[in-house]
Amino acid sequence: MTDEDILANTYKSFNARDIGAVVNALHPDVDWSNGMEGGRVVGRTAVSDYCTRQWQMVDPRVEPQQFATDSAGRITVTARQVVRDLNGTVLVDQTVYHRYRMLGGLVAHMEILDAPEETPEPSFPLVTPEFAQSFADEWIAAWNAHDLGQILSHYAYVFSMASPFIPGFVGELCGRLQGKEAVGAYWE
């Protein structure tokens, strides 16, 4: 089975709400983008909890349309995402871009992109587990301290956040906020 097959099956499992199959496709230390609440989740349990929490609030369906592998071996998936509330009303119907890094046939990293052309090849080494743990510990401490400035210091100035809750809270119909200032105002 190819990495693309694994990802296609993982989307099918996500849409079928088969969290066991989703988790089985993940590396134990998977680093996953939290598109609903912002930030990242790390590890199978955290991704499982995130997906389960998401399914309790909204009904998202993500259908892959295209797979593209770059020279670094990362796979970008172009997908149609339809998010409904629990009564079936469509909240979001859009094209999304997810980029994956696979390790030993398992998803090691997933991120949500604004668009595939906005994703240059990395010019830095891969993050070590030690750095990732330190970064996560700092972020969690800032979050628990409710220190918005310190939380935002962990993000690039131009980062974006997508959530089906954004339209209801700030009126941004696309469900995406761009930049530290906009996301900071949303988190306040």
Based on the model shown, name its key terms.
188 residues, alpha+beta, 6-stranded mixed β-sheet, two-stranded antiparallel ribbon
Structure description:
The protein has 188 residues and is of the alpha+beta class. Helix content is 36%, strand content 32%. It has seven helices and eight strands, in the order ααββαββββααβαβα. It has helices spanning 3-15, 19-24, 44-57, 129-144, 148-152, 166-170, 180-187; strands spanning 26-33, 40-42, 59-69, 75-84, 90-103, 106-113, 160-162, 176-178. The strands form two sheets. It has a six-stranded mixed sheet.
Number of helices: 7
Indicate the low-confidence ranges by residue numbers: none
Structural class: alpha+beta
Could you give the order of the helices and strands? HHEEHEEEEHHEHEH
Q: What's the short version?
A:
By secondary structure, the protein is α+β, with helices and mostly antiparallel strands. It is built from 7 helices and 8 strands, in the order ααββαββββααβαβα.
